[in-house]
Amino acid sequence: MSVDFAGDTSRLYARYRRDLPADQAAELAHLLGLSANDVLVDLGCGTGQLAVPLRRHCRAVLGLDPEPGMLTGLRARAAPGILTVLGADSDLPQLRSLLVSGQGAGAGAVVIGNALHWMDEPAALAAAGALLRTGGGVAVVTQGPPLWLGAEPWQAGVRAVLEQGRGQVRDTCGSDEAALHMRSDILRDQGLDVSITRWQATHQVDTEWVIGHLGSALPDGALQLDQPDGLAERLRASLVSQNGHLLEEVTTTALVGRRGRD
């Protein structure tokens, strides 16, 4: 897992990425079989969009991320019971040696939110499954389509501005059906029981939120905030032309694989 989420990107991530809502977090915890005694591992935890809402459903959360700025943002939330560790998917085998004993103990769950597409997916999911206690679960949580691929006219305008300076933008960030099916097969091949849950939401957003959210998905400095004709200003001009009617349709998908009881 290697990506530039430093500087402005991590600060924008903390401000402009939505937490999983409390009711969805409760349903996800149930699907994972989380208990009050469990440790949950959040791989690619970012600034805590899954870790914080899921914390109330387990004993502790271990948040791993390879970007120090992301961990700084999570620690700044001062959520009790969350330990942040500089690490990536390649560190999961070492983590297994610490969490899994000969008696079969392990993590109650491993969750990955909007980050799996940055990893070696088969290896990361296999290593996540190996961390689980009996009855534990792996969840891959995605939100899509990405803002730049949405069907609203203002989203088409955003996509056009991005493509003027960055070329074609078609990355689904793993939120498409093909990725979902591939990941489901990987989990089934591990002998996990697979379920898929979806939640729909419509969000009223504004110009500054859209620009900030885009900045959280781009390399540090890509918004060109200090340039009068930079990307941020060109996005702002496109969005202002929509007269403030900015609705975003979001589908949150939770792919869960549970390890059965012997």
From TrEMBL:
List the Gene Ontology MF annotations in alphabetical order: methyltransferase activity
Domain called Methyltransferase: residue spans:
41-136
What keywords were assigned to this record?
A: Methyltransferase, Transferase
The record's Gene3D superfamilies line, in alphabetical order, gives: Vaccinia Virus protein VP39
Look up the record and give one Gene Ontology term from the biological process aspect.
methylation
The family database entries (Pfam families) matched by this protein are listed as:
Methyltransf_25 (PF13649)
> This protein is called what?
Class I SAM-dependent methyltransferase
Query: Which species expresses this protein natively?
Result: Goekera deserti
